[in-house]
Amino acid sequence: MSEPEGRVLPIYLVMDASGSMVDQFSTLHEGLVSLREQMEESPAAAAAVRFSMILFGSTVQTMMKIEDFNEISNVPSFSDLGLTNYTIVFQELARQIPLDVNLLKGENYRVLRPAVFFLTDGYPNDGGDWRPAYAQLMNEANKWRPNIMAFGVGAADADTVKEIASRPQYAFIAVAGADMGLALGEFMAALQRSVVSSGISVNAGGGLLVADPVGFTRIDAEEID
Question: Is the pTM of this model over 0.90?
Fold first, then answer.
């Protein structure tokens, strides 16, 4: 049997592209372009990460299939996907992650547990109760279940964001009254730091590292009376 090619961390950027996000698409696009450029300057980190981008609204669209940053030639544009349906995006992750992991294993990589960076700016208002689809994705019997970092901006509900995060320390929400554009810029900056540092960590035998976005608070932070 041949030696493994190395260890890789699949990262999924899952972003709300509902109508309320339209004015912020340029900020998100610029952040992704910056991320790609940063990874070009960090080839060792890029080699340890595989990246995918999924947008959701009333429908779900995989804009970047799981791939090496060195293979990403351009960042696709965003489009208005209507209402906010969480159900379909958790169903899509449950379908796609096993395919991607098996693809990477077939290329002789050792694959770490996937990481999902989930960004939303409001309440789910389409597709009914999303929790059964989430529970299926995150069931402990599902060996492909990901780590989910959940980030809320704008009108996002803190309790909902906390439910989506796979661990309490992975739930973040922008401070009340924060400018949406600035908050999303800070989210993209934190994503860049997380991806680069995680790639470096994987190369050194570690794993996922998550950077706190400036201007966000961890939802589990509570003051004891």
Answer: yes
